[in-house]
C-alpha cells in the first residue's frame, strides 16, 4: 500500500544486488550493471537520498557490507574484488580472479570475506590479516553463495552444491595462496534445472535454493535421515497462458531475519513470502513493473528492498523496455510472520 | 449437514456457483465468498480489520491510518481497481459476468470432452444439450474386465458341456443363440464398436474371445495412456540453459564488454 515507495534516484541499468546495513536500517547499498555502486539513506527524505555513488570500471555484480556500516565490498566483471570505504569513497582492490566475480559475502562471526567467481574458485579474505587471500578451487562454476552463522553454501553449475564450515575456511584463510579446506558436505541440487539463487536460514538450520524452472527447494544442514527426509521443493512463479504453463526463473531469495520466513522474487515480476516450516505461502505482492532481480530484508526485519530490472534474463542486445527501480517496502509487525495453525 | 457435492456437476450447477470478482475463485455458497473477500481482499494490512467492501477499506485506511488505498490486495491483473463497489456477487459488471460464464462454459465442455475421451462413455451432458434425445431403456451395464472374463468363462462352461454330451430336449445348438440372456450385444460395454460384429454363422465362443482380447487390449492401452494427460501440459521455460547463467550471457554482450 502506501507503505511502499520507490527510490527517487535509481541506477540506469540492471540492478544486481540490494543490501541493507546491519546496524542502520535505513542504509542501503545497491550494485548495478551500469558500473556503479550506490549508497542510499532510504528515509532521509521521501524517495530516499543518494548519499554517494562509487564508480567501477565494469558492471558491479554483487555488493555487501563489511565489519561496520561504513565498509563495503564489491565484486565486478573486471575480475576484481574491492573494498569500498563508504565515508571517503576510496576503492581498494583486494584480489583478482581469473574471470568475472559473481558474488561476495561477508561473515561477521568469522571476520571473513568470501568471493566467488566463474573461474571456479572462491577467494577467502581474512580481514584480520589484510593483504593476503587464500584461493579455494570448487567443483564447478559458482552461481550463488550464502553464509549462515557457521556455514557457507555454494550453489554451482551442474546442479552441484557444496557446504563448507566457516571455521575450516577461516583456518584456511590464514595462509596465502591455494588452499584445500575440506568440504563439509557435497550435495546435488534437489531440483532438475540450473540453480539460480541460494540463501541460508537465519537460525543456521538449513537453506533455500531456487532454480530457473520456477521452483524453490528447502533443505536442512543436519545430515541425519530424519532431517534430510524433511526437505522439499515446490513450484512457484508460474503463469498459465492459454493452457500452457509459462515458467519463470526464480532470481532472488531472502530470509526474514526475525520470523525465519523467506521471500522469493521471479522473472514474473512477483515477490512472494513463504513460510519454510509450515510449507505455506504467506502472501504475494502486487506485480512489480519488471523482473525481480534481487530482494533483501533489513536486519530488524521491518523493511524489504526489491530491485527490479526489465527482461534482463533474456540477454538480448537491444535494451529491453521497462523501468529499472529499487522499491522499499515497510513491513508491518506481522506481515512476514508465519500464519498460526 | 451439507449437501454432498456431485462429482461431475452439470453446466447449470457450475454457472450458479458464486465466484470472486477479484481473484476468479468460485465457492460453494455466497457466505463463503463474502468471508473470502473480507479475508483476502478487504482486510486492512495495518490492523487486520476486515471490511465489507473496497470502498469501506479505503475510508478505514484514510481515517484510521491516514493512508491511501491504491489497489485491492491479492487481485488478479486489471481487477484491483477501487472504482467498483463489489460485495459478494453484487456490483460485478455485466461484461465481466459474461466473460466469466464463457470461461466456465468452455472449461466445462473441455472437461466433458476429456472425460468422454478417457472413459469412452457418452457425455452425461448429452441429455443437457439435446434435451434427452438418446436414452437407452435398458439399464446400463457396467463391467470391469474381470467380470467380463468370468462371464465368458461361465458362458463357455454352460454351453460347452451340452455339446460334448447329448443335447437336452428342445434346446437349440449354442451356435445359433444370439446371446439374448447374456447381456447387451457387443458394443454396449462402453467400448468402441468393433467392425463386423459376430455374424449369424460365426462361432460365438471365438467372437467372445475376440471381445475379451479387445477389452484387454483396450484396458492395457488405456492404462498406458491414462497418466499421459498430466504431463501433456506444455511447459514454456522463460529461461533455459544447461550450464550458463543469465549473468554470464549478459557479461558476453557488447555493451558490458570489459577488456
From TrEMBL, chain A:
Keywords: Repeat, WD repeat
InterPro entries, A to Z: WD40/YVTN_repeat-like_dom_sf (IPR015943), WD40_repeat_dom_sf (IPR036322), WD40_rpt (IPR001680)
Pfam families assigned to the protein according to its UniProt record, in alphabetical order: WD40 (PF00400)
Annotated WD repeat ranges: 250-284
PANTHER family documented for this protein: MRNA EXPORT FACTOR AND BUB3
Official protein name in the record: Mitotic checkpoint protein BUB3
Protein species of origin: Polyplosphaeria fusca
From TrEMBL, chain B:
One GO CC term, this protein: nucleus
Keyword Nucleus: yes
InterPro entries according to UniProt: Znf_BED, Znf_C2H2_sf, Znf_C2H2_type
UniProt keyword annotation of Zinc present: yes
Domain C2H2-type: 42-70
Compartments where found: Nucleus
PANTHER family in alphabetical order: BUB3-INTERACTING AND GLEBS MOTIF-CONTAINING PROTEIN ZNF207, ZINC FINGER PROTEIN 207
Annotated GO MF terms: DNA binding; zinc ion binding
UniProt keyword list: Metal-binding, Nucleus, Zinc, Zinc-finger
Designated name of the protein: Uncharacterized protein
Domain BED-type: 13-72
Domain of life: Eukaryota
